[in-house]
Amino acid sequence: MAQPVGAEDGLEISAIQGDLYRVRDGQRETVFLVTPDGIILGDPLSFETATALKAELAQRFPNRPVRYVLHTHHHFDRAEGAAVFTETAEVVAQRNFDGALSAARNSWPSFFGIADRNGNRVLDAAEVADSPRGALVRSKDRDGDGRVRPEELYRRVNAPETTYDDRRTITLGGRTVELVHTGSLHTPDMTVLYFPAERIVFVADPPVAGTRLSFGTAAPRDVLRWLEVVGRLDFDRGVTDDGQTFSSETVHELSAYVADLVAGVAAGRAAGQSLDEVQAAPFLERHASKPFAVDRARHIEAVYRTVRVLHMELSAAAVANYAPQTKGYCEGFTTCRESRPVPLGAIALSVSGLRMGISAEFTAGDQSWHAQTSPYYDQEFAARSTRAAVMFRYHSARPGFVSALMGGVSVTKTNIKGMDRRKETYGLAGAPRSFETDQSSMGLTGGVDLARRLGGRIDVIVPIRVTRLMGETLYHVLPLRTDIQIGVGFRYGLARRVN
Questions:
Q1: For the chain, what is the radius of gyration of the CA atoms?
Q2: How would you classify the pairing of strands 377-398 and 356-373?
Q3: The CA-based dihedral angle spanning residues 131, 134, 136, 141, taken in that order and rounded to the nearest 10 degrees
Q4: Residue whose C-alpha is closest to residue 480's, from 334, 333, 340
Q5: pLDDT exceeding 90 applies to what percent of the chain?
Q6: How far apart are CA 323 and CA 343, in angstroms?
Q7: Of 354, 261, 350, 274, nearest to 314 (Cα)?
Q8: Which pLDDT score is estimated for 408?
Q9: What is d(CA 361, CA 363) in angstroms, rounded to the nearest whole number?
Q10: How many other β-carbons are positioned within 10 Å of the β-carbon of residue 192?
């Protein structure tokens, strides 16, 4: 039962379990653990709250000062009070705390729902007035000019004394608290505090509210990671920063639900389905009896509008090509022959979202043989070309079939090796002369990929490409200017990432 600390400060302290206590100041809460050698305190909240709490703890637990302050994240309304305890306590936070704090001092935080509507990088009185947290924000107007700047909000938030990466255990007086990094949900330095002996976790700004789930503006991937990390902890009850509780069973059920939710919505979006079509799909049927399933339609809509599907695919194809002769190529020659007996091979690596992407493609093996004779000049040579292209892609999909349009720039490198002979005026042939040259030429490459899904990650593809070389012809006797390729091959999905 809550025990009022004093009317002048509004704090309430109540036991959660054993020596683990809850502190409530208005709508905000934190926790602390009392040990024989001192106190481990969670978020110290505001400077004013921390000052009042320090006095109350000294009265209730004499000779047991706060030895550790453990930040859940850097937001000023939960972190600035750490300065009150630095004489006796080690302040600990996740490694990203400093970077997130630096960024926060230069931008207005969105977590209060207050916007800098006129874009002057300060909050004017009218912009703060409509917010339920407006009084807290106005209290940070340090210079009394009626406007609040981001640096004023964070003026009393200091860098932690020590940091950790993924997990750290704090031991004091035979008691243990674990700090666990839960990813980038809400902030990049987000930490939950795990009390293994009490089987309690304390969390700030969670996606869980009782037995319900809220995405807000969070990325589905971040919500899923939070649920998975917290779900691996061996606890009975979760306590939130606003006084709510949740069970470990709820976290496990929500983790399975969100995994199915994200996978199902991502599959629908990748297949080009509309929101209504995805909502009508039965991929969440096994969760229908759970309390959070009543928000199924809202959850699907939230994920549908925020999910980003990133595909990485590798393709390989055998290619045949046709390069029409440049106009005038055979003029002046008695005979003019060419052949292309060697097929090409092409490989490509593509990274794309639901519609747009980029592809890097390499084509090699283009060989041709050329022979020309005239009364004055004979030549015979072989040309071998390779091409690298970077193209933007736009693709559409329907069940079982995918097509993609693409276009971009390319570089064609050609090696030409052969012999020529100039004939003398009086019918005596000159000595044969060998020659070799390498030259590169920029070009524009575009085309289409047609693909038929075989199942799993494998597609059969038919790539069609047209390349137009720019500038001078590669070699004065080479007919190549426009190259048309068509092939057949396979594409394999290397990875799919959902954000």
A1: 34
A2: antiparallel
A3: 140
A4: 340
A5: 52
A6: 13
A7: 350
A8: 96
A9: 7
A10: 21
Rounded to 5 degrees, what angle do the CA atoms 382, 386, 388 make? 160
Instruction: Give the β-pairing of 335-342 and 356-373.
Output: antiparallel
Percent of the chain scored above 70 by pLDDT?
Answer: 86
Torsion of CA 472, 474, 475, 476, to 10 degrees: -30
Count Cβ atoms within 10 A of the Cβ of residue 49 and give its class: 0-12 exposed, 13-18 middle, 19 or more buried: buried
Q: What is the mean pLDDT of the chain?
A: 85
The tokens for 422 are 């100039």
Q: How confident is the model at residue 437 (pLDDT cuts 50, 70, 90)?
A: confident
pTM for this entry: 0.71
Confidence band of 269 (pLDDT split at 50, 70, 90): confident
Q: Is the separation of the CB atoms in 293 and 258 below 8 Å? A: no
- Report the largest interatomic distance among the alpha carbons of the chain, rounded to a whole angstrom: 120
Closest CA to 43 of 141, 157, 147: 157
Nearest 5 degrees, angle CA 202-CA 204-CA 205?
140
List of residues 6+ apart from 293 with CB closer than 8 A: 257, 284, 287
Please, which residues have CB within 8 angstroms of residue 331's CB and are 6 or more apart in sequence? none
**Residue-wise pLDDT tens digits, 378-409:** 888 888 888 999 999 998 766 556 688 999 99
For 51-86, the pLDDT digits (tens) are 999 999 999 999 999 999 999 999 998 999 999 999
- At 367, give phi and psi (nearest 5°): -125, 145
Rounded distance between C-alpha atoms, residue 165 and residue 167, angstroms: 6
Q: Per the structure block, which two tokens stand in for 336?
A: 């003019």
The residue whose two tokens read 């809550």 is 2
